[in-house]
Amino acid sequence: MSLIVLGTASHVGKSMTVAALCRALYRRGIPVAPFKSQNMSLNSYVTADGSEIGIAQAVQAFAAGVEPSADMNPILLKPKGDQTSQVVLLGRPYKDVQIRDYYAETDTLLSEALRAFERLQNRYAHIVVEGAGGAAEVNLYDRDIANIRLARHLRLPIILVADIERGGVFAQVYGTLALLPEDIRPLVAGVIVNKFRGDTGLFASGVTKLEDLTGVPVLGVVPYAEIPLPSEDSLSIADKGRRAANRSVRIAVVRLPRISNFTDFELLERHATVDYVPPGGSLAGYDCIILPGTKNTVADLEALQLAGTGEELRLARERGVPIVGICGGYQMLGRTIVDAGIESDIPGDYAGFGLLDVATAFTGYRKTTVQVRRRATGPGPILPGMGEVEGYEIHMGETEQGELPAAFSGDGAATPDGLVFGTYMHGLFQNPSAANALLAYLSERRGVPFEPVAASGGGALGAADAYDELARHFEAHVDMDAIMAWFMDATGRRAGA
Predict the structure, then answer these.
(1) Is 391 inside a domain boundary?
(2) Where is the active site (predicted)?
C-alpha cells in the first residue's frame, strides 16, 4: 500500500512529514521509498549514479534506509530567472524552458513520472508520495502533475498537511477540501495540523471543530521542532534569520539572487552565527565570508558587481578574512568567466572578483553531476586540517586552475596563504572535519573557546539519529495506528509481506 501527502500551501511541512513517515515505516521493518513527481528547488543532490534530484527526496530516501535514485524525483525544475527553468528529467538535464512553454510538456512528463512511480512500487511495494505547493490551485488543475492529476492516476489515500503557525488553519483545511475536485476529495483520509507552538492540548477543541466542519479525521497535531535536517528550498532561508545562533564566531554567506544548495552551511549554522547577507550588504565584522553555489553564475556575478560586493570582498581580503567559494562562488572568485551563451543571453567575457587566479569557461550545455571523495591538499591554516572529505559536484562550466595550488586533490584552487580558496564540492562543510578546521581557526583568531563538532553531528545529509528523532517526534503526536492500517492487508499482515 502507498499514500500521498498533500499540503494546504507551500512550506507547511510536507517534506518532513514524508521523511517522518518513511523513517517510521523503516523502523517497523516495512520497505518504503519516497516519491515526488515534480519538484522545484535549487537545493539538489547527486545520487551514486550521477543523477540529480531534489535534496528533500534524498533526505527522505535516507530516512527510509534506501539509496536515493532518479525515480524518486523524476522531474526537477531549477529556476534560472526571467521565468525560465532548467528541467532535469530522470536525473539529467533535459532543456531550459520558459514556464508558459513548460505546460505544453506536462502530458509527456506525467507519463514519465508515472513510469518512475511504477518502477519504485515494483521494487519497494510501499511508496510515500509528496505533492508540491498547495493542493487546491484550481487554475492549475488541468496541468498539475504533482498533485491533482497524479492523485487521479494513483487513487491512493491522501493525508492533508496544514501549517497552524501561519494562522488561519481552519480556512486552510476547510477551503482546500472544498476546492478539491469531487473525485479527489473522498481520497482525503486524514489531516495533520503541523508546526504547533505550545501545549497541543490547547487545540483539542480545534481538532473537534475541524472534524465537525470537514468530516475528515485529524490524525494529529505536531509541535514545531528544530531537527537538524537539510532545508528543501529557498523558502527556508526566511526562517534562518529568526533562529540565527548567538555565537561569537560570525560567518557571512552571500545571499545570491539564485542561491543554490545553501544546505551546504547548515552544520556551520549549528555552531556559529551564520548570516545570509544580500548583495550590497556590509561584510564588515564577519570572521569568514562564503560565496555559495548559484543556478546562474554570470547573472549573479553581475548583480554582486553592481551592488558593490566586489569592493566588500577586497576590503575583507585586506583584513585577512578567509573567503571561500563553493561551485558558482568559486567561479566568481576567479579573474574571468567566458560564456558562450550558456549562462547568459549575451556571449562574452565577464570579469570576476579576481581573488583567485583562475578562469572559467562555459562552452556547452553540459553538466557535471558526480559524488566525490577528496583529500584537502591546499596550504594555509584551514585546509590542511580537513583531511579526507566527501561531497558532490553539480555544475556547468570548467575552471582552469593556473599556477595556484589545488585546494583538494583534483579540485579547486587556493591562494598561497590558503585564506582564499574555492571548490566545486557541495557538502564540504557538512563534513565535521571540514567544519572543525574552519571553526577552529576562526575561533582562535577571535580569541574565543572552540568546541569541536562531533563526528556524528554531520555527514552529507545528517546523522541517522536525526531521522530517528524526527520519527519519534512525529509518532508521539500522530495516530500511527490509523496510518499503519493503510499498510496492512485484510488479514492483518503487512501489505507486501
Answers:
(1) yes
(2) 327 (nucleophile), 426
Report the CATH number at residue 84: 3.40.50.300
Active site residues: 327, 426
Q: Is position 494 within any domain?
A: no
Instruction: Tell me, yes or no, whether 385 and 316 share the same domain.
Output: yes
Expressed as residue numbers, the domain containing 188 is 3-229+463-485
- Asked if the structure places residue 267 within a domain, the reply is yes
Q: Which residue has the cell 544580500?
A: 278
State percent of the chain over pLDDT 70: 93
Task: Encode pLDDT of 175-214 as tens digits.
Answer: 999 999 999 999 999 999 999 998 888 899 999 999 999 9
**Residue burial 215-235, b: 16+ Cβ < 10 Å; e: rest:** ebebbbbbeeeebbbbbbbbe
| Rounded distance between C-alpha atoms, residue 74 and residue 115, angstroms | 9
What residues contact 94, with CB distance under 8 A and at least 6 apart? 86, 87, 88
Residues 193 and 241 in one domain: no
495 falls within a domain: no
